[in-house]
Amino acid sequence: MSHTPSRRLSLNAFLHDTGHHEASWRHPESAAERVFDIDFYVEQAQRAEAAKLDGVFFADIPGLWAATPYRPTAHLEPITRLAAIAARTERIGLIATASSTFYEPYNLARLFSSLDILSGGRAGWNIVTTQSEQVARNFNLAQLPSNEERYARAQEFVDVVTKLWDSWEDDAVLTDRDSGRFFDPDRVHQIDHHGRYFQVEGALAAPRSPQGRPVLVQAGSSNQGRAFAARNAEAIFTAHQTIEDAQAFDSDIKARAATFGRDPEHVKILPGISPFIAETEAEARELQDYVNSLTVPAYGLAQLEGFGGISLHHLELDEVVPVEVFGQAGHVLDNDRSRLQVVANIVERDRPTLRQLLHRLAGARGHNVVAGTPLQVADIITDWFENGAADGFNVMPPLYPQLLDAFTSSVVPILQDRGLFRTDYEGTTLRDHYGLPRPDSVFAEEAATTRGA
């Protein structure tokens, strides 16, 4: 089957210790002993790059989920890991999560600018506001700020970071040995930001990076998250169980982006997909059932409670989960916790037992888990891509490295044969891979006018 799309599919590899299934580390062939070994993550990034994927992505919570010792919840800091990966890869994008609630804008701007420079323009920042009370207590806060407060801070945070990234014009570095000037001070600007949350003078202690600015990514689908993403994000990681929900989300975000004067084509919607892949569907489902059998219910119950305070400890594992416990969480207009909405929709639509629900969430925490042959997985990706549900996918293999290898070796070639996915990189930066423009500096035009006068 040949396709000639007007746009190209984007694919990221979401790297997550031994895999996205919570019990993956217990699989006898897992790499559980290597979760703190940087070579393990470099190898996965190199596999993804060999398949010409757009990027690799690390999530992050700056705290230890100590109450649940049933999986590897301790992890290496993601920007540091990506710096090591940058040194041993050439083209693949490098996306890390960092919280606007617990960083200062200057530090974060410097970290991501440095990553973009040393990688030749491959950095992306996944912006989160973090909803953990436990994490707040790690950062000198008695309690977590409200959802509204976190997003208000996040917007000003992004505004400050953007100005810092733009504070050096592209041609500010002179390296002029004859005149003795390393840079042109007229092309380096203090940002002099004075806002509600931040007072930042600037300029950044680093020149403008190869992409102008690292790519802005966002991973929240709550009401606040959607408004924030429509205004700021260039790629959005999201979770949907059905193509209909994904289509509605895609349409909503792109309509909102247009109201901010943005080109909707420059907002990439990338749902998560977690595929169990085997030569036959029966074998794929057998693998899924086996890994599900390794789960510890106490972990799943704690994770579910973390999604939005819903406790189901009182239920028997084979008892049907009551819809009433989720209230209105399944409805967008009442949605302040996006992942809780996904869980509520599963319960409303499928009426699972507690065991079945925990198994559904064990695979990828509410992202779409599929089991099938390479052709079946490729068909799902194609269907969503061609029918307005996605611009690409955040690929979340349940088990590393086996199921990343299965995806890159068997699913990617089908997508390439259909003309949906690249057979080689056409550019060098993450913006190139996503088809995003390089932004102009907010200071450059004004400064050029002043110099001309």
Q: How is this structure best described in words?
A:
This protein is α/β, with parallel strands linked by helices. The protein has a single domain, classed as TIM Barrel (Alpha-Beta Barrel), CATH 3.20.20. It contains 15 helices and 13 strands. The chain has helices spanning 38-50, 78-86, 105-118, 133-136, 147-165, 223-232, 243-259, 281-293, 297-308, 338-350, 354-364, 374-386, 402-417, 430-434, 444-452; strands at 10-14, 55-58, 93-99, 123-128, 173-176, 181-183, 193-194, 199-200, 215-218, 235-238, 268-277, 368-372, 392-395. The strands form 3 sheets. An 8-stranded parallel β-barrel has the order 1-2-3-4-9-10-11-13, surrounded by 7 helices. Helix 6 (223-232) links the parallel strand 9 and strand 10 (235-238). Helix 2 (78-86) runs parallel beside helix 3, helix 3 packs across helix 5 (147-165) and helix 5 (147-165) packs parallel to helix 6 (223-232). The longest helix has 19 residues, at 147-165.
The number of E-state strands comes to 13
Neighbour order of strands in the largest sheet:
1-2-3-4-9-10-11-13
Strand percentage lies at: 5-15%
Broad CATH class: Alpha Beta
- Which shape, going by the Cα principal axes? globular
> CATH homologous superfamily name?
Luciferase-like domain
Instruction: Supply the helix-strand structural class.
Output: alpha/beta
Order of helices and strands: EHEHEHEHHEEEEEHEHEHHHHEHEHHH
Q: Number of domains in the coordinates? A: 1
- Look up the CATH topology: TIM Barrel
Helix content: 25-40%
